[in-house]
């Protein structure tokens, strides 16, 4: 692994005071994010196609004998809420890892071909092997995400200079285009497969089940652990490969460990909820605007903001076309695209 660059402030009084103040603001920011998560979780349980009162919500949680429609509707929203938090946190963290590994501010699992690789394997399973359950999708999506990530990294590592950010981004874009064409070629002639695939491809958490979450949870846990463990290595990689090597680190190992964590997170989230875009692209930039370039803070902020944004988007999708729902993948695209363009136009993007 790589020795992290020093974030230690000088012992001088003013510098120590500024460091303590910055750390205090960052901790307060995390607490504010936690409060926001609690608030949006309450909204997610309380708001849906069926209106429920506060009394019915309390009965749903504290009175097992209450089996009315309102109580059952509230209980049905619980797994959906938990899945939204898990998927949003996973995509936010995965996006931060991808941007750190490639040192590309526009990198996310979609641009690097990871989502498309997962989609190709899933549509292959649907079209040729009749797979239709989330459990099947999980393994297919993980295999596809891992295969496409390895392929993109191998292609991006060829030639002089190794896996530079530009080569990785170009390899990811080319792979995404090629795999998208393959997905279309497989699914378009097969109407039955297209009907199944299009619901998964939109991206949504409305079909959340505890069994599906239990299947992906180990992958999410391992991916999160590897990603958070890579924070100091990402700080060193941000200085450039030559300087990181000069610090005595092993660049390839550091990138491989971080990328594995990102792929596990993205693959598991995509398998259980479909390819949801913009969370991994937008969230790390908001985190970077608040806490600077220190990945020890960017990663936990990305976890919190990812869960907050995706769950909020899901609540919005339930409200705007009541009593029907709009899948969260459509809402994140509607919210994420203009927000991201606004951020870029205001030149708030930080150099990686």
TrEMBL record:
Keyword rRNA-binding tagged: no
Q: What GO terms are given for molecular function? A: transmembrane transporter activity
Q: Which domain of life is it from?
A: Bacteria
**Location in the cell:** Cell membrane
What does the entry give for GO biological process?
siderophore-iron import into cell
Keyword field: Cell membrane, Membrane, Transmembrane, Transmembrane helix, Transport
Which spans are transmembrane here?
Answer: 27-47, 81-98, 110-131, 137-156, 168-188, 208-229, 257-283, 295-316, 328-345
Mention any Pfam family matching this sequence. Answer: FecCD
> One GO cellular component from the entry?
plasma membrane
What are the start and end residues of every segment in region (Disordered)?
Answer: 1-21
Membrane topology summary = Multi-pass membrane protein
The UniProt similarity line reads: Belongs to the binding-protein-dependent transport system permease family. FecCD subfamily.
Q: What is this protein called?
A: Iron complex transport system permease protein
Q: What is the lineage of its organism?
A: Bacteria, Bacillati, Actinomycetota, Actinomycetes, Micrococcales
């Amino acid at each position: 692994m790589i020795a992290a660059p020093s974030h230690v402030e000088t012992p001088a009084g003013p510098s120590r005071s500024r460091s303590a103040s910055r750390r205090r603001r960052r901790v307060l920011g995390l607490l504010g994010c936690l409060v926001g998560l609690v608030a949006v979780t309450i909204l997610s349980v309380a708001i849906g196609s069926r209106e429920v009162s506060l009394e019915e919500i309390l009965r749903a949680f504290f009175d097992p004998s209450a089996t009315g429609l309102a109580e059952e509707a509230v209980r049905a929203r619980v797994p959906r809420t938990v899945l939204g938090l898990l998927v949003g946190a996973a995509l936010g963290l995965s996006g931060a890892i991808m941007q750190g590994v490639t040192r590309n501010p526009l990198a996310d699992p979609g641009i690097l071909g990871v989502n498309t690789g997962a989609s190709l394997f899933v549509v292959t399973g649907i079209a040729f092997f009749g797979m239709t359950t989330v459990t099947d999708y999980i393994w297919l999506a993980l295999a596809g995400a891992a295969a496409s990530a390895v392929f993109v990294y191998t292609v991006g590592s060829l030639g002089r200079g190794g896996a530079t950010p530009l080569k990785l981004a170009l390899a990811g874009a080319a792979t995404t285009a090629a795999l998208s064409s393959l997905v279309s070629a497989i699914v378009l002639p097969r109407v039955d497969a297209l009907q199944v695939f299009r619901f998964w491809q939109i991206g949504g958490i409305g079909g959340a089940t505890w069994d599906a979450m239990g299947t992906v949870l180990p992958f999410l846990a391992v991916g999160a652990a590897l990603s958070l463990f890579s924070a100091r290595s990402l700080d060193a990689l941000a200085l450039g490969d030559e300087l990181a090597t000069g610090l005595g680190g092993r660049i390839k190992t550091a990138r491989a460990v971080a990328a594995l964590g990102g792929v596990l997170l993205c693959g598991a989230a995509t398998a259980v909820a479909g390819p949801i875009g913009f969370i991994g692209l937008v969230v790390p930039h908001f985190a970077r605007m608040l806490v600077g370039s220190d990945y020890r803070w960017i990663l936990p902020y990305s976890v919190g903001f990812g869960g907050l944004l995706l769950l909020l988007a899901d609540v919005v999708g339930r409200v705007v076309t009541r009593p029907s729902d709009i899948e969260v993948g459509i809402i994140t695209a509607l919210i994420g695209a203009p927000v991201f363009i606004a951020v870029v136009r205001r030149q708030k993007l930080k150099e990686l």
